[in-house]
Amino acid sequence: MAVIKPFKGVRPPKSMVEEVASRPYDVLNSEEAREEAKGNEKSLYHIIKPEIDFPVGTDEHDSAVYEKAVENFKMFQEKGWLVQDDKENYYVYAQTMNGKTQYGLVVGAYVPDYMNGVIKKHELTRRDKEEDRMKHVRVNNANIEPVFFAYPDNAELDAIVAKYTSRKPEYDFIAPGDGFGHTLWIIDEKDDIDRITALFADMPALYIADGHHRSAAAALVGAEKAAQNPNHKGDEEYNYFMAVCFPASQLTIIDYNRVVKDLNGLTPEQFLKALEKNFIVEEKGENVYKPSSLHNFSLYLAGKWYSLTAKPGTYDDNDPIGVLDVTISSNLILDEILGIKDLRSDKRIDFVGGIRGLEELKRRVDSGEMAMALALYPVSMKQLMDIADTGNIMPPKTTWFEPKLRSGLIIHKLD
Fold this sequence. Notes:
Distance between the termini: 25 Å
Strand content: 15-25%
Largest sheet: 9 strands, mixed
Number of strands: 21
Helix content: 25-40%
Number of helices: 13
Shape: globular
Structural class: alpha+beta
Protein backbone atom coordinates (compact mmCIF):
# COMPACT_ATOMS: atom_id res chain seq x y z
CA MET A 1 0.00 0.00 0.00
CA ALA A 2 1.52 3.32 -1.09
CA VAL A 3 1.84 6.03 1.57
CA ILE A 4 1.90 9.65 0.38
CA LYS A 5 1.32 13.04 1.96
CA PRO A 6 0.79 16.66 0.89
CA PHE A 7 3.54 19.17 1.67
CA LYS A 8 4.25 22.89 1.80
CA GLY A 9 5.90 23.45 -1.55
CA VAL A 10 8.70 25.99 -1.94
CA ARG A 11 7.98 27.72 -5.25
CA PRO A 12 8.81 30.76 -7.36
CA PRO A 13 6.24 33.57 -7.62
CA LYS A 14 4.19 33.37 -10.83
CA SER A 15 6.07 36.28 -12.37
CA MET A 16 9.45 34.53 -11.90
CA VAL A 17 8.73 30.89 -12.70
CA GLU A 18 10.16 30.98 -16.21
CA GLU A 19 13.39 32.55 -14.96
CA VAL A 20 13.80 30.05 -12.11
CA ALA A 21 12.74 26.79 -13.83
CA SER A 22 15.46 24.71 -15.45
CA ARG A 23 16.17 21.38 -17.03
CA PRO A 24 17.14 18.54 -14.63
CA TYR A 25 20.73 18.53 -13.37
CA ASP A 26 21.64 15.30 -15.19
CA VAL A 27 20.58 16.11 -18.76
CA LEU A 28 23.24 18.73 -19.41
CA ASN A 29 26.87 19.30 -18.51
CA SER A 30 28.39 22.17 -16.57
CA GLU A 31 29.20 24.26 -19.64
CA GLU A 32 25.70 23.86 -21.07
CA ALA A 33 24.25 24.92 -17.70
CA ARG A 34 26.63 27.89 -17.59
CA GLU A 35 25.43 28.96 -21.03
CA GLU A 36 21.71 28.51 -20.25
CA ALA A 37 22.04 30.48 -16.99
CA LYS A 38 24.06 33.30 -18.54
CA GLY A 39 22.64 36.67 -17.46
CA ASN A 40 19.98 35.02 -15.27
CA GLU A 41 20.77 35.19 -11.54
CA LYS A 42 17.43 33.52 -10.75
CA SER A 43 18.14 30.30 -12.68
CA LEU A 44 17.86 27.14 -10.59
CA TYR A 45 21.16 26.01 -12.13
CA HIS A 46 22.83 28.17 -9.44
CA ILE A 47 21.46 25.62 -6.93
CA ILE A 48 21.48 22.31 -8.83
CA LYS A 49 24.69 22.94 -10.81
CA PRO A 50 26.43 25.51 -8.60
CA GLU A 51 29.81 24.86 -10.23
CA ILE A 52 28.67 27.44 -12.81
CA ASP A 53 29.43 30.11 -10.16
CA PHE A 54 33.08 29.00 -10.10
CA PRO A 55 35.84 29.25 -12.74
CA VAL A 56 35.52 26.89 -15.71
CA GLY A 57 37.02 23.51 -14.87
CA THR A 58 36.08 23.56 -11.17
CA ASP A 59 35.28 20.04 -9.94
CA GLU A 60 31.51 19.84 -9.48
CA HIS A 61 32.06 17.48 -6.52
CA ASP A 62 34.29 19.91 -4.60
CA SER A 63 32.95 20.63 -1.10
CA ALA A 64 32.91 24.37 -1.88
CA VAL A 65 30.51 23.67 -4.76
CA TYR A 66 28.01 21.91 -2.47
CA GLU A 67 28.35 24.78 0.03
CA LYS A 68 27.58 27.23 -2.78
CA ALA A 69 24.33 25.34 -3.48
CA VAL A 70 23.29 25.89 0.14
CA GLU A 71 24.26 29.56 0.02
CA ASN A 72 22.31 30.09 -3.21
CA PHE A 73 19.23 28.19 -1.97
CA LYS A 74 19.16 30.39 1.12
CA MET A 75 19.66 33.53 -0.98
CA PHE A 76 16.82 32.59 -3.37
CA GLN A 77 14.48 32.38 -0.37
CA GLU A 78 15.72 35.59 1.22
CA LYS A 79 15.18 37.49 -2.05
CA GLY A 80 11.70 36.05 -2.54
CA TRP A 81 12.60 34.09 -5.67
CA LEU A 82 11.44 30.96 -3.83
CA VAL A 83 8.58 31.17 -1.33
CA GLN A 84 7.10 28.39 0.80
CA ASP A 85 3.34 27.77 0.70
CA ASP A 86 1.67 28.32 4.06
CA LYS A 87 -0.29 25.04 3.99
CA GLU A 88 0.23 21.47 2.82
CA ASN A 89 -1.04 20.85 -0.70
CA TYR A 90 -0.86 18.36 -3.50
CA TYR A 91 -0.14 19.82 -6.95
CA VAL A 92 -1.01 18.88 -10.53
CA TYR A 93 1.88 19.21 -12.96
CA ALA A 94 1.00 18.84 -16.64
CA GLN A 95 3.48 18.52 -19.50
CA THR A 96 2.60 18.95 -23.16
CA MET A 97 4.79 17.58 -25.96
CA ASN A 98 3.80 17.27 -29.63
CA GLY A 99 0.15 17.98 -28.81
CA LYS A 100 -0.08 15.30 -26.09
CA THR A 101 -0.52 16.24 -22.41
CA GLN A 102 0.24 14.07 -19.38
CA TYR A 103 -1.01 15.01 -15.90
CA GLY A 104 1.04 14.19 -12.80
CA LEU A 105 0.31 14.55 -9.10
CA VAL A 106 3.13 16.10 -7.06
CA VAL A 107 3.25 14.28 -3.71
CA GLY A 108 5.48 13.43 -0.79
CA ALA A 109 6.46 9.76 -1.36
CA TYR A 110 7.25 7.64 1.70
CA VAL A 111 10.89 6.68 2.39
CA PRO A 112 10.03 3.25 3.93
CA ASP A 113 8.03 2.44 0.75
CA TYR A 114 11.26 2.77 -1.23
CA MET A 115 13.13 0.59 1.27
CA ASN A 116 10.50 -2.17 1.38
CA GLY A 117 9.76 -2.34 -2.34
CA VAL A 118 6.33 -0.70 -2.53
CA ILE A 119 8.12 1.88 -4.70
CA LYS A 120 9.46 -0.41 -7.41
CA LYS A 121 12.60 0.15 -9.46
CA HIS A 122 13.64 -1.34 -12.79
CA GLU A 123 17.27 -0.15 -12.97
CA LEU A 124 20.40 -0.57 -10.89
CA THR A 125 21.99 2.57 -9.50
CA ARG A 126 25.65 3.54 -9.26
CA ARG A 127 26.93 4.33 -5.79
CA ASP A 128 29.03 7.32 -6.93
CA LYS A 129 25.98 8.97 -8.52
CA GLU A 130 23.84 8.19 -5.48
CA GLU A 131 26.42 9.75 -3.16
CA ASP A 132 26.59 12.96 -5.23
CA ARG A 133 22.83 13.45 -4.97
CA MET A 134 22.80 12.40 -1.30
CA LYS A 135 25.30 15.18 -0.54
CA HIS A 136 23.08 17.64 -2.41
CA VAL A 137 19.97 16.59 -0.45
CA ARG A 138 21.87 16.57 2.86
CA VAL A 139 23.45 20.01 2.57
CA ASN A 140 20.27 21.70 1.35
CA ASN A 141 18.00 19.68 3.66
CA ALA A 142 15.58 19.56 0.74
CA ASN A 143 14.59 17.69 -2.40
CA ILE A 144 15.39 20.44 -4.87
CA GLU A 145 14.34 18.31 -7.87
CA PRO A 146 11.47 15.81 -8.17
CA VAL A 147 11.57 12.18 -9.21
CA PHE A 148 9.25 10.73 -11.85
CA PHE A 149 6.84 7.90 -10.86
CA ALA A 150 4.07 5.99 -12.63
CA TYR A 151 0.98 4.58 -10.92
CA PRO A 152 -1.76 2.18 -12.10
CA ASP A 153 -4.56 4.13 -13.78
CA ASN A 154 -7.37 5.24 -11.47
CA ALA A 155 -10.59 6.86 -12.74
CA GLU A 156 -11.37 8.63 -9.45
CA LEU A 157 -7.93 10.25 -9.37
CA ASP A 158 -8.44 11.29 -13.00
CA ALA A 159 -11.68 13.01 -11.99
CA ILE A 160 -10.04 14.93 -9.14
CA VAL A 161 -7.22 16.03 -11.44
CA ALA A 162 -9.77 17.11 -14.09
CA LYS A 163 -11.60 19.23 -11.48
CA TYR A 164 -8.46 21.30 -10.87
CA THR A 165 -7.17 21.43 -14.43
CA SER A 166 -10.47 23.01 -15.49
CA ARG A 167 -9.44 26.04 -13.42
CA LYS A 168 -6.94 28.80 -14.08
CA PRO A 169 -3.43 27.40 -13.54
CA GLU A 170 -0.83 28.75 -11.14
CA TYR A 171 1.89 28.41 -13.81
CA ASP A 172 1.57 27.99 -17.55
CA PHE A 173 4.54 28.46 -19.88
CA ILE A 174 6.47 27.03 -22.81
CA ALA A 175 10.03 26.13 -21.85
CA PRO A 176 12.78 27.60 -24.03
CA GLY A 177 14.89 25.14 -25.96
CA ASP A 178 12.55 22.13 -26.01
CA GLY A 179 9.30 24.00 -26.70
CA PHE A 180 7.34 21.80 -24.29
CA GLY A 181 4.45 23.17 -22.22
CA HIS A 182 4.57 23.12 -18.41
CA THR A 183 1.44 23.88 -16.37
CA LEU A 184 0.79 23.65 -12.62
CA TRP A 185 -2.32 23.79 -10.42
CA ILE A 186 -2.60 23.66 -6.61
CA ILE A 187 -4.87 21.05 -4.96
CA ASP A 188 -5.76 22.83 -1.74
CA GLU A 189 -9.22 21.51 -0.73
CA LYS A 190 -9.05 19.21 2.29
CA ASP A 191 -11.59 16.67 1.04
CA ASP A 192 -9.70 16.20 -2.22
CA ILE A 193 -6.35 16.01 -0.42
CA ASP A 194 -7.69 13.32 1.93
CA ARG A 195 -9.23 11.36 -0.95
CA ILE A 196 -6.01 11.39 -2.98
CA THR A 197 -4.12 10.10 0.06
CA ALA A 198 -6.69 7.32 0.52
CA LEU A 199 -6.69 6.31 -3.16
CA PHE A 200 -2.90 5.97 -3.17
CA ALA A 201 -3.16 3.88 0.02
CA ASP A 202 -5.16 1.35 -2.02
CA MET A 203 -2.39 1.00 -4.63
CA PRO A 204 -0.12 -2.04 -4.23
CA ALA A 205 2.85 -0.26 -5.83
CA LEU A 206 4.30 2.86 -7.41
CA TYR A 207 6.91 2.60 -10.17
CA ILE A 208 10.02 4.71 -10.70
CA ALA A 209 9.91 5.80 -14.32
CA ASP A 210 12.86 8.21 -14.33
CA GLY A 211 15.20 9.36 -11.57
CA HIS A 212 16.49 6.16 -9.98
CA HIS A 213 19.54 7.92 -8.53
CA ARG A 214 17.51 10.82 -7.16
CA SER A 215 15.01 8.37 -5.63
CA ALA A 216 17.77 6.33 -4.00
CA ALA A 217 19.53 9.45 -2.71
CA ALA A 218 16.35 10.99 -1.28
CA ALA A 219 15.30 7.77 0.42
CA LEU A 220 18.75 7.06 1.85
CA VAL A 221 19.05 10.56 3.31
CA GLY A 222 15.57 10.21 4.83
CA ALA A 223 16.60 6.88 6.38
CA GLU A 224 19.81 8.46 7.69
CA LYS A 225 17.86 11.22 9.38
CA ALA A 226 15.51 8.70 10.96
CA ALA A 227 18.47 6.72 12.34
CA GLN A 228 20.12 9.89 13.70
CA ASN A 229 16.99 11.15 15.48
CA PRO A 230 16.63 9.60 18.98
CA ASN A 231 13.04 10.88 19.09
CA HIS A 232 12.09 9.59 15.61
CA LYS A 233 8.34 8.99 15.36
CA GLY A 234 7.86 8.31 11.63
CA ASP A 235 5.73 11.33 10.70
CA GLU A 236 8.61 13.80 10.27
CA GLU A 237 8.96 15.57 6.95
CA TYR A 238 12.27 13.80 6.20
CA ASN A 239 10.29 10.55 5.92
CA TYR A 240 9.00 11.81 2.57
CA PHE A 241 10.56 12.89 -0.71
CA MET A 242 9.11 14.75 -3.67
CA ALA A 243 7.72 12.73 -6.59
CA VAL A 244 5.55 13.54 -9.59
CA CYS A 245 3.24 10.56 -10.17
CA PHE A 246 1.61 9.99 -13.58
CA PRO A 247 -1.02 7.43 -14.65
CA ALA A 248 0.91 4.71 -16.50
CA SER A 249 -1.30 4.93 -19.60
CA GLN A 250 -0.35 8.58 -20.16
CA LEU A 251 3.39 7.91 -20.35
CA THR A 252 5.40 7.13 -23.44
CA ILE A 253 8.82 5.49 -23.39
CA ILE A 254 10.88 6.40 -26.43
CA ASP A 255 13.81 4.55 -27.91
CA TYR A 256 17.28 4.56 -26.32
CA ASN A 257 19.86 3.83 -28.98
CA ARG A 258 23.50 2.74 -29.16
CA VAL A 259 26.59 3.93 -31.05
CA VAL A 260 29.86 1.96 -31.07
CA LYS A 261 33.37 3.24 -31.82
CA ASP A 262 34.73 0.18 -33.70
CA LEU A 263 33.76 -3.20 -35.14
CA ASN A 264 36.12 -5.24 -32.93
CA GLY A 265 38.59 -5.79 -35.77
CA LEU A 266 35.96 -6.80 -38.34
CA THR A 267 35.34 -5.16 -41.72
CA PRO A 268 31.77 -3.95 -42.36
CA GLU A 269 31.27 -6.97 -44.63
CA GLN A 270 32.49 -9.40 -41.95
CA PHE A 271 30.30 -7.71 -39.35
CA LEU A 272 27.18 -8.03 -41.53
CA LYS A 273 28.03 -11.68 -42.20
CA ALA A 274 28.38 -12.34 -38.46
CA LEU A 275 24.94 -10.81 -37.87
CA GLU A 276 23.32 -13.35 -40.21
CA LYS A 277 23.74 -16.11 -37.62
CA ASN A 278 20.99 -14.65 -35.40
CA PHE A 279 19.28 -12.01 -37.56
CA ILE A 280 17.56 -11.62 -40.90
CA VAL A 281 19.62 -8.80 -42.42
CA GLU A 282 18.04 -6.56 -45.10
CA GLU A 283 19.78 -3.59 -46.69
CA LYS A 284 17.53 -0.50 -46.71
CA GLY A 285 19.75 2.00 -48.53
CA GLU A 286 20.62 5.58 -47.61
CA ASN A 287 17.22 6.70 -46.28
CA VAL A 288 16.77 6.54 -42.50
CA TYR A 289 15.21 3.24 -41.42
CA LYS A 290 13.27 3.10 -38.12
CA PRO A 291 12.60 -0.21 -36.31
CA SER A 292 9.07 -1.33 -37.16
CA SER A 293 8.24 -3.67 -34.27
CA LEU A 294 9.57 -5.61 -31.29
CA HIS A 295 12.69 -7.64 -32.20
CA ASN A 296 13.36 -5.50 -35.27
CA PHE A 297 16.45 -3.29 -35.15
CA SER A 298 17.87 -0.54 -37.30
CA LEU A 299 21.59 -0.62 -38.09
CA TYR A 300 23.56 2.25 -39.64
CA LEU A 301 26.92 1.19 -41.03
CA ALA A 302 29.24 2.58 -43.71
CA GLY A 303 26.67 5.01 -45.12
CA LYS A 304 23.78 2.52 -45.32
CA TRP A 305 20.79 1.54 -43.18
CA TYR A 306 19.89 -2.09 -42.51
CA SER A 307 16.91 -3.87 -40.97
CA LEU A 308 17.87 -6.61 -38.50
CA THR A 309 15.12 -9.00 -37.37
CA ALA A 310 15.97 -11.44 -34.60
CA LYS A 311 15.38 -15.03 -35.72
CA PRO A 312 12.89 -17.18 -33.77
CA GLY A 313 14.68 -19.13 -31.07
CA THR A 314 17.21 -16.39 -30.33
CA TYR A 315 15.07 -15.02 -27.48
CA ASP A 316 12.57 -16.32 -24.93
CA ASP A 317 9.15 -14.68 -25.00
CA ASN A 318 8.43 -16.08 -21.53
CA ASP A 319 11.44 -14.39 -19.94
CA PRO A 320 10.56 -10.75 -19.02
CA ILE A 321 14.22 -9.70 -19.38
CA GLY A 322 15.27 -12.06 -22.19
CA VAL A 323 12.45 -10.86 -24.44
CA LEU A 324 13.63 -7.24 -24.32
CA ASP A 325 15.31 -5.92 -27.45
CA VAL A 326 17.99 -4.32 -25.30
CA THR A 327 18.85 -7.82 -24.01
CA ILE A 328 18.81 -9.38 -27.47
CA SER A 329 21.06 -6.70 -28.93
CA SER A 330 23.38 -6.71 -25.89
CA ASN A 331 23.85 -10.48 -25.99
CA LEU A 332 23.87 -11.24 -29.72
CA ILE A 333 25.49 -8.10 -31.17
CA LEU A 334 27.37 -6.07 -28.59
CA ASP A 335 28.76 -9.00 -26.59
CA GLU A 336 28.94 -11.93 -29.03
CA ILE A 337 30.26 -10.00 -32.06
CA LEU A 338 31.73 -6.75 -30.75
CA GLY A 339 33.11 -7.98 -27.40
CA ILE A 340 31.32 -5.32 -25.31
CA LYS A 341 30.60 -7.10 -22.03
CA ASP A 342 29.63 -4.27 -19.66
CA LEU A 343 27.41 -1.48 -20.95
CA ARG A 344 28.04 0.56 -17.80
CA SER A 345 31.81 0.77 -18.09
CA ASP A 346 32.94 0.01 -21.66
CA LYS A 347 34.31 3.18 -23.26
CA ARG A 348 33.67 1.88 -26.81
CA ILE A 349 29.91 2.40 -26.53
CA ASP A 350 27.72 5.45 -26.05
CA PHE A 351 23.95 5.92 -25.77
CA VAL A 352 21.66 8.35 -27.58
CA GLY A 353 18.14 9.19 -26.40
CA GLY A 354 15.51 8.84 -29.09
CA ILE A 355 14.46 12.46 -28.60
CA ARG A 356 17.51 13.34 -30.72
CA GLY A 357 16.19 11.32 -33.67
CA LEU A 358 17.88 8.72 -35.85
CA GLU A 359 19.61 11.49 -37.82
CA GLU A 360 21.83 11.96 -34.75
CA LEU A 361 22.97 8.33 -35.07
CA LYS A 362 23.81 8.89 -38.73
CA ARG A 363 25.69 12.08 -37.90
CA ARG A 364 27.89 10.42 -35.30
CA VAL A 365 28.82 7.59 -37.64
CA ASP A 366 29.33 9.79 -40.70
CA SER A 367 31.62 12.07 -38.68
CA GLY A 368 33.98 9.16 -38.09
CA GLU A 369 33.47 9.35 -34.32
CA MET A 370 31.57 6.05 -34.34
CA ALA A 371 31.73 2.98 -36.57
CA MET A 372 28.12 1.85 -36.30
CA ALA A 373 24.78 2.77 -34.75
CA LEU A 374 21.95 0.57 -33.55
CA ALA A 375 18.38 1.82 -33.05
CA LEU A 376 15.96 -0.17 -30.88
CA TYR A 377 12.18 -0.42 -30.73
CA PRO A 378 11.09 1.17 -27.41
CA VAL A 379 9.89 -0.91 -24.49
CA SER A 380 6.33 -0.44 -23.25
CA MET A 381 5.10 0.74 -19.86
CA LYS A 382 3.53 -2.72 -19.41
CA GLN A 383 6.94 -4.34 -19.90
CA LEU A 384 8.51 -1.94 -17.42
CA MET A 385 5.84 -2.60 -14.78
CA ASP A 386 5.93 -6.38 -15.34
CA ILE A 387 9.69 -6.38 -14.85
CA ALA A 388 9.46 -4.28 -11.69
CA ASP A 389 6.63 -6.47 -10.34
CA THR A 390 8.69 -9.66 -10.81
CA GLY A 391 11.67 -8.11 -9.02
CA ASN A 392 13.78 -8.10 -12.16
CA ILE A 393 16.14 -5.34 -13.26
CA MET A 394 16.33 -4.02 -16.81
CA PRO A 395 19.69 -3.85 -18.57
CA PRO A 396 21.37 -0.41 -18.49
CA LYS A 397 20.11 2.37 -20.77
CA THR A 398 16.78 0.72 -21.63
CA THR A 399 14.24 3.51 -21.13
CA TRP A 400 14.12 7.16 -22.14
CA PHE A 401 11.19 9.28 -21.02
CA GLU A 402 10.20 12.59 -22.58
CA PRO A 403 9.33 15.24 -21.72
CA LYS A 404 11.66 15.57 -18.74
CA LEU A 405 10.28 17.13 -15.56
CA ARG A 406 11.19 20.80 -15.26
CA SER A 407 13.09 21.54 -12.06
CA GLY A 408 12.32 24.55 -9.89
CA LEU A 409 8.51 24.54 -10.10
CA ILE A 410 8.32 23.03 -6.60
CA ILE A 411 10.89 22.16 -3.92
CA HIS A 412 10.29 20.00 -0.85
CA LYS A 413 12.01 20.85 2.45
CA LEU A 414 12.90 18.02 4.82
CA ASP A 415 12.06 19.94 8.02
